[in-house]
Prior knowledge:
This protein has 13 helices and 20 strands. The protein is an alpha/beta fold.
Amino acid sequence: MPAIVIVGAQWGDEGKGKATDLLGSRIDYVVKFNGGNNAGHTVVIGDEKYALHLLPSGILTDGVVPVIANGVVIDIEVLFHELAALTARGVDVSKLVVSANAHVITQYHRTLDKVTERFLGKRQIGTTGRGIGPSYADKINRVGIRIQDLFDENILRQKVEGALHQKNQLLVKLYNRRAISVDEIVADLLSYTERLRPLVADTGLLLNQALDAGKTVLFEGGQATMLDVDHGTYPFVTSSSSTAGGASTGSGIGPGRIERVIGIVKAYTTRVGSGPFPTELLDESGEYLRAKGFEFGTTTGRPRRTGWYDAPVARYSARVNGVTDFVMTKLDVLSGLEKIPVCVAYEVDGVRVEEVPVSQSDFHHAVPIYEEFPGWQEDISAARSFDDLPRNAQDYVLAIEAISGCRISAIGVGPERDAIVVRHDLLN
Length: 428
């Protein structure tokens, strides 16, 4: 059976949990391979709504083994808070596995994230302040702390001392903050050791063995393509590889094992934080999409920036990720509109551009070129087949499919777990 990757094909918050739920009982493992608790999934099951931040959404599916792999940075306090909250609601979390090689977010990462962002002033990136970037920076600078280090107090203390030697200089002399003590950090991290121990494993070995045994493994990306540290709208990006290629480095499975890449797109576009957003709406239409789509961050509660569907971004994502299928979410949010504009290209310095410009300056100044499609008034939340959709809704989906570079295999028509129209099998 294949390894399958699910990635956001826009700027995040596309509803990746919907695709995970759709595959449901056909999946044996769900793996989070990048990011941390800076982005979340909202999953609706019946009358229950679950907001997940660090945990993979597969933790809500019976029989699935949820895995936090090596590419993730983990705030251990958040991890156990989420687990406790799910347990209190009757969710079985006993199968969770955590990589020994995942990096840890500490108090000093959170502190540095907040003070450096404020220090940037008008040049702020729009981080969540949860220590994600500083933790990844330490990983690249080879002064990071990994989960496995918590099981050797001497190694842990040496690593914390090495990390704080420079960071305290920055905090005290540049940012006018108090120094953070080594003992304070070590004691905090060691307090989680015994609870962590039963969860930790060599997840790269575990996942390869699962694939060898014919199990289906789903890799669930955090954030999205346009926030990827290499391929996104740099520097207004996350600190990890959130494209399909990141599933290999973030989990320890070879790229040749990936057979399907499912890209998730909303029927319109949103983003959180600073950075270019060609189709952004700063008018009543934008407020309409935000209110009807409930476009507020799962983790931060921040209102999302909203805009019309951007086909060049979808084509770019299809190319970068090698997307085999798109899943479109939130088509129901567009119900009630008379006309629905779609960005089919950009104008940059008077020239029509069909693809996302490689120059961030050009992308920042890109003016969307729209094509309008007729809307529909019907409530589509009860639709379960493509033929159940109004003709104009069908035509909208088919038009988006034709200009997005890949087939649209499923369509979300409401927030409920089963509110989805399936056109093609995502595994074939």
